[in-house]
UniProtKB/TrEMBL annotation:
It comes from the Eukaryota. GO terms for biological process: lactate metabolic process; protein transport. This is UEVLD enzyme. SUPFAM superfamilies: LDH C-terminal domain-like, NAD(P)-binding Rossmann-fold domains, UBC-like. GO terms for molecular function: L-lactate dehydrogenase (NAD+) activity. Residues 1-131 form the UEV domain. Interconverts simultaneously and stereospecifically pyruvate and lactate with concomitant interconversion of NADH and NAD(+). It catalyses: (S)-lactate + NAD(+) = pyruvate + NADH + H(+). It comes from Aegotheles bennettii. InterPro entries: L-lactate/malate_DH (IPR001557), Lactate/malate_DH_C (IPR022383), Lactate/malate_DH_N (IPR001236), Lactate_DH/Glyco_Ohase_4_C (IPR015955), NAD(P)-bd_dom_sf (IPR036291), UBQ-conjugating_enzyme/RWD (IPR016135), UEV_N (IPR008883).
């Protein structure tokens, strides 16, 4: 059943008006994980001028989350046609376009997709005529290609799954984004060894100019690179690292461009991995975690941001190894908003019962914390350091460690915060994300700072268009 039936019907009507030769049907589509679903699809030809005029046969599958997820597109060659593998077409006829990668409703439409398809095919013709002998071989292969166009997974991706397990049983992690942060996360997660398979979803056209190409060249075990959302199917954790690289003029414009990016990503990710934990590392992490929660409609426990996990680990390390305050370190946390407005806080009870001694102990503790914060200020958040933090969090989730981490979680109801905002707070993490929030020691100054952060984040969220 299509979740947005009226919008889907409207799309079909528009396609039918512009391309009356298309035929529509419902057929079974087989995803990469072996699951099947009855999906609307339509076949037809699109006119392409490449010296002469050609009619290029295509087939588009419409996902049940349409129009919030892009169609799956294939060429549909006849017996006397061969596929020209190129920038936008693979050996099995699967079509890859920037329009698909940047899909965002309501800006993106099937008509717009077909127009870009025609434009790209006019630059590089995707099919060619076969000789009679080649046509004979082609007819023998068409049954296999037909299976591919019906969604069967390709041989190459299957061969990367070892150990005799099915992919659905694997501890699989998908990292979305082929930039420096995405690659750092892939390397750190792979090195940690908690995941049986790591998929890097590289969605952008020019990403091959960067480190993604090197990952492909030096193929790491159990790491797959893909531009296809279906490669993320049945992931236990999906890490979001993408950030818009647009020319926005204001901070609000920058954040809005990230929101627009997520509108084309989150529904598709949610469709393929309906029980995943979303782990957000994109900036600003509090706002983008909120956006991910809203767009996915997942329970709040399964949408978390990397938040202050890295800062907390560093803070505890400084207390223990630099300032030799090991007793304090085990209950010390960095919480709140990532960046300059983060604050140190504590869990656990006061060490002394006498009020005067308790005040003295608190003052002493705060002096040590201030010294630790000064050391912490000199530590930037480079891609590789955030990658380590992401690997730490995914390890706790996949192994159900029930370890406490300071992560961005829905803070409504905590510290008298009444708005739907995400802030870093100590949380116990397990297979399904946040199991429980750990109680913080009451501190009016800390609460005031958290409320101030919540207010500014909420004001920004109110200006965004979801």
């Amino acid at each position: 059943q299509y979740k947005f039936r009226d919008l889907t019907i409207e799309e079909i009507q528009n396609v039918n008006k512009t391309y009356p030769n298309f035929t529509f049907s419902m057929n079974t589509y087989t995803f990469k994980d072996g699951s099947q679903k009855d999906l609307l699809n339509f076949s037809g030809t699109v006119p392409v001028k490449y010296g002469d005029s050609y009619n290029i046969p295509i087939r588009l599958w419409i996902l049940d989350s349409h129009p919030f997820a892009p169609p799956i597109c294939f060429l549909k060659p006849t017996v006397n046609m061969g596929i020209s593998v190129g920038k936008h077409v693979d050996a099995h006829g699967r079509i890859y376009l920037p329009y698909l990668q940047n899909w965002s409703h309501p800006k993106s439409t099937v008509i717009g997709l077909i127009k870009e398809m025609i434009a790209k095919f006019e630059e590089e013709l995707p099919l060619y005529s076969l000789s009679s002998s080649d046509a004979t071989r082609q007819s023998e292969l068409l049954s296999y290609i037909a299976k591919i166009t019906e969604g069967d997974t390709d041989v190459k991706s299957k061969s990367k799954i070892g150990g005799g397990k099915t992919e659905g049983c694997f501890n699989k992690i998908t990292v979305v984004g082929g930039g420096d942060l995405g690659i750092a996360c892939v390397l750190a997660v792979a090195a940690k060894g908690a995941a049986d398979k790591v998929v890097l979803l590289d969605l952008f056209e020019d990403a091959a100019k960067g480190g993604t190409m090197d990952l492909e060249i030096f193929a790491l075990p159990n790491v797959e690179i893909s531009k296809d959302f279906s490669a993320s199917a049945n992931s236990k954790v999906v890490v979001l690292t993408v950030n818009s690289l647009g020319n926005a003029q204001t901070y609000l414009d920058v954040v809005q461009s990230n929101v627009d990016l997520f509108r084309g990503i989150i529904p598709a990710i949610s469709h393929y991995s309906q029980n995943t934990v979303l782990l957000v590392a994109s900036h600003p992490v509090e706002v983008m975690t909120y956006v991910s929660w809203k767009l996915s409609a997942f329970p709040k426990s399964r949408v978390i941001g990397v938040g202050a996990n890295l800062d907390t680990e560093r803070f505890q390390y400084i207390l223990t190894n630099v300032l030799k305050a090991q007793v304090l370190a085990k209950d010390a946390w960095i919480i709140g908003e990532q960046g300059e407005d983060k604050v140190p806080s504590w869990t656990g009870c006061n060490l002394v019962a006498n009020q005067t001694e308790a005040m003295a102990a608190r003052n002493s503790r705060e002096k040590v914390a201030n010294r630790a914060m000064e050391v912490l200020k000199g530590k930037g958040q480079r891609s590789w350091s955030v990658g380590f933090s992401v690997a730490d969090l995914t390890d706790s989730i996949l192994k159900d460690k029930r370890k406490v981490h300071s992560v961005s979680t829905l803070a409504k109801g905590c510290c008298n915060i009444n708005s739907e905002v995400f802030l870093s707070l100590p949380c116990i993490l397990g297979t399904n994300g946040v199991i429980e929030m750990v109680q913080l020691e009451e501190n009016p100054l800390v609460q005031e700072k958290l409320q101030s952060s919540a207010g500014s984040i909420h004001d920004l969220q109110q200006q965004l268009k979801l």
